[in-house]
Write a structure and sequence with these properties.
Blueprint: H1 5-26, E1 34-40, E2 49-51, E3 54-57, H2 59-71, E4 74-80, H3 85-90, E5 96-98, H4 102-105, E6 110-111, E7 116-124, E8 141-145, H5 151-157, E9 162-166, H6 169-177, E10 183-187, H7 188-197, E11 204-214, E12 216-218, H8 226-238, H9 241-249
Parallel strand pairs: 1-4, 8-9, 8-10
Antiparallel strand pairs: 2-3, 5-12, 6-12, 7-10, 7-11
Helix pairs in contact: 2-8, 2-9
Length: 255
């Protein structure tokens, strides 16, 4: 049944009010002496661990805490789904999004020096045949995370790239362990942490797709200085603090 004009106007006003309230909720400026980090909730251990919707641990939080301390600020974390995180950063909902790349969120941000090393890898079940090259994965279901882009795999497999999407990294590996597919795309840090905690699963790191060192992205609306952030990150790396954080969660370095 069609809405009457008055009802349509009321509904439109309600939707506009809801959108405005949501936008205002996101645009929470950092309080004096505070730096706000956006935490993407699609990440899993060891990168990020969440208690409910609150970031409670992991490499990203430890790096944020160390960076805030080096800057003489208090760290606050705003947890958001990965699809909302880039726009929230553009809108000034937070100052920094760490462990990201221009290829993932767009190039319209200021990016810090690279700080967190990792690698995109193919994980295999223990009973899966050995792989020697990506082309062997053509026309096979391959575990992926919804919204993630894999240009190297797309180039190698073309139309033979058969994605089997999961909502996040954890769900992707759970599907692999449940036998939904023989192989999944993941990252070295996540896989090595899982192998370390659960060797009985027999998961293998089969192929390295590409290596990278991820920076942080600075909001164009942040009052923080990119130069000061870079200086702080360089100091943390020079003093070995970043490596200590990595070793705390995943002693094996990316291959």
């Amino acid at each position: 049944m069609a809405l009457r004009p008055a009802a349509r106007r009321f509904r439109l006003k309600a939707l506009l009010a809801l959108a405005t309230a949501t936008a205002m909720a996101l645009r929470v400026a950092a309080a004096p002496g505070e730096v706000v980090f956006i935490a993407a909730t699609n990440h899993t251990a060891p990168l990020s661990t969440f208690t409910g919707e609150r970031l409670s641990g992991g490499i990203v939080k430890d790096l944020g805490d160390a960076l805030a301390q080096r800057l003489g600020l208090r760290a606050r974390y705003l947890s958001l789904p990965s699809k909302r995180a880039p726009q929230a950063l553009r809108d000034g909902a937070g100052d920094l999004l760490c462990y990201t790349r221009p290829q993932w969120i767009g190039s319209d941000f200021l990016f810090t020096v690279p700080v967190l090393p990792n690698a995109e890898v193919v994980a295999a079940r223990g009973d899966a045949p050995a792989l020697h090259q990506l082309r062997q994965l053509a026309d096979q279901p391959l575990g992926t995370v919804l919204g993630y882009h894999h240009p190297e795999v797309e180039k190698a497999l073309g139309p033979g790239f058969r994605r089997d999407n999961a909502i996040d990294m954890t769900a992707n590996l759970r599907k692999l362990m449940a036998g939904r597919m023989a192989y999944a795309l993941t990252d070295h840090l996540v896989l090595s942490d899982l192998q370390r905690r659960h060797p009985e699963l027999g998961l293998r790191e089969e192929l390295v797709v590409g290596r990278f060192v991820a920076p942080c992205a600075l909001s164009p609306k942040s009052s923080l200085s990119l130069k000061a952030i870079n200086a702080a990150l360089k100091a943390l790396m020079a003093e070995g603090e970043v490596q200590r954080i990595l070793d705390r969660y995943a002693p094996a370095s990316p291959p």
